[in-house]
Amino acid sequence: MKKILYVTDVVKLDLSSLDFACYLCELSHSKLTCIFLENLVREARPAKMLKETAIEGGINVQTENVEELKEQCLADNIQLFKDSCERRGVTGIVHRDRGVPLDDVVIESRYADLLLIDASTSFSAAKEDVPTRFVTDVLADAECPVVILPESFEGLNKIVFTYDGRASSVFAIKQFTYLFPELKEHAVVVITVMEDRDRPSPEERYKLKEWLHDHYSDVDFIIIDGSVKTGLLDSLLLRNRDFIVMGAYGRNAFSTLFTPSHAAPILKLVAQPVFIAHH
């Protein structure tokens, strides 16, 4: 892996998630390209909201003018990004995208190995649940794997693969393994939460186990009976300092998993990094 994208709002740069981004770059010897997004076509957020967001990010805002505020935030955040990368010995590159944020991210992802994004990233004037509509759209449309960034990073314990027997889950497992061969010594847990009629066959589980043992030295399988929506989320909420890997085909799968009724558990879930790939 050579090119990792880090997506952020031009108004706010989160240093905690940037720390994890730098960790991935150090691990994989990759460059980090920071995509500063600006909704130039139609900025829906009022100046007061932008100012509050900037202050949350640690910027001492000096103006009430929207354009001047954005320019100040951009200059300060670019410097923060460069300083953080330099301290970690990571090569940092800056792209300023000033069109439609979703379109910009999708095009950028076409020419990248991995995309990193905070689940709370939003360009809406209204308060949104996590993950936001923008992030859900990015997950569905991105043309490379996506990592939902953790709230904080204190080291990596295990890799957790979610497996339901479908091609999408195996594809995500393989993509993660190919992108992060440096993690081959970490313990792996494969979690399957399925109803009896949909559970992967013993032969399928054996084939996956055989493949995983060619790439990892410590692999454990866990099968949990029950509903996928509740069982999978409940099992993942128990994880700590783990890297969670999931697969999905696109919008239908994401709309099923990320329903409003699951906003609270998902908010807790994204305290851990989540790798998502689909084809």
UniProtKB/TrEMBL annotation:
<protein>
    <recommendedName>
        <fullName>Nucleotide-binding universal stress UspA family protein</fullName>
    </recommendedName>
</protein>
